Amino acid sequence: MSECRIKIYTLSTCGHCKSTKKLLDSCGMEYECVEVDKLQGEAQSSVLDEVKKINPDCSFPTILIGDKVIVGYREKEIKEAIGNDGNQ
To answer: What is the span of the domain harbouring residue 47?
Structure first.
């Protein structure tokens, strides 16, 4: 199975963001998580600009799996993108 790079942009208080991390953990996936609300100043502005480039609505979670962008907690889409259709 080819490895894909996963990066998620979340808010620390967001239930859908927590569900996304839990799903990725349960599938054994490694990912980079950026909790946008815990950043400050220029660091936060820079990350928000990054998010807006792939998700103009700048809503969370914003998930980048390889070159695929998924916005929101969409279990089926996430599993398909990581190559886990539930038949582990």
So the answer is: 6-82
| pTM assigned to the model | 0.90
pLDDT digits (tens, 9 = 90+) for 15-69: 999 999 999 999 999 999 999 999 999 999 999 999 999 999 999 999 999 999 9
In a domain, 87, yes or no: no
The total of structural domains in the chain comes to: 1
Tell whether 49 is covered by a domain. yes
Q: Cα(39)–Cα(49) distance, rounded to whole angstroms? A: 13
Burial class (CB in 10 A: 0-12, 13-18, 19+), 79: middle
CA pair distance 62, 55, nearest whole angstrom: 7
C-alpha 78/C-alpha 62 separation (Å) is: 11
Neighbours of 34 (CB within 10 A): 16
